[in-house]
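Hi F.,

I've been meaning to write this up properly since the lab meeting, where we talked about keeping a consistent format for the predictions we share between groups. The idea is simple: the sequence comes first, exactly as it goes in, then the C-alpha cells exactly as they come out, then a line or two of notes. No screenshots and no reformatting. I'm using this chain as the first example so we have something concrete to point to.
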Amino acid sequence: MDATAWNERYEGADLIWTAEPNMFVVDEVQGLAPGRALDLACGEGRNAVWLASKGWEATGVDFSSVGLTKGRHLAEAVGVEVTWIEADATSWQPPASGFDLVILCYLQLDGPGRAAALAVATRATAPGGNLVVVAHDRDNLVRGVGGPPDAAVLYDVAETTAVLAAGGLDIVKAAQVERPVTSAEGTRVAIDTLVRAVRRP
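Output, unedited:
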C-alpha cells in the first residue's frame, strides 16, 4: 500500500489502531533511560506519543499525512510534544547524530522494502542506542490470528537478526512472541517477531 492508500484507510476521526502503545515496545523500553527516540513508520503515532509521555524526545516518521495528523491530535490530547516528519520509512535520511532508541513496528513490506526499512532503522540508531523491531511473524499464517495473509510481507526472527547483525548491531533479544487478540470467538493468539539490538559504540 502506498501513502494514498494509507491516507484513505486512516480517514475519519476514530483511530484505526488503539491509542495504547504496543505491549512489546513497553516491555523493551521501560528499563531504558529516556533520550532521543524515533518511531519509524509511526502510523497514527501511538508509540511516539507514549514515548514522549515517558520523557523521551520523540520523533515520528510516516508517509501518511492523515496518520501524522491523527498523531498530532493524540499528542495534544495527552499533552506531550512530538516531532512529526512526513517521509517514506524505506528512503528517509535520518540525522547523522542518530537516536538513542529506534522502534519499527508492524511495517509489513516485501523483501526489498523490508530490507530498505531495516537499513534506515539501523542507520538511525546512534552508537550505544537500541533498535526494537516488532512485526507479524511468518508463522502467524498457520499458528496465529490476524495480520497480512501474504507470507512475502511477514517477518522471520533469524532473517531479521541476520540483517541487523550485518549492519553492525549486537542482538540483545530475538524471539517469536505471542500477543493476545480479542475476537468474536474470544481471546486468540497472534505470533510476532520481536528483536532488540544495540549498535556497537
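Notes:
The first helix runs from residue 3 to 10.
The mean pLDDT is 92.

If this format works for you, I'll send the rest the same way.

G.
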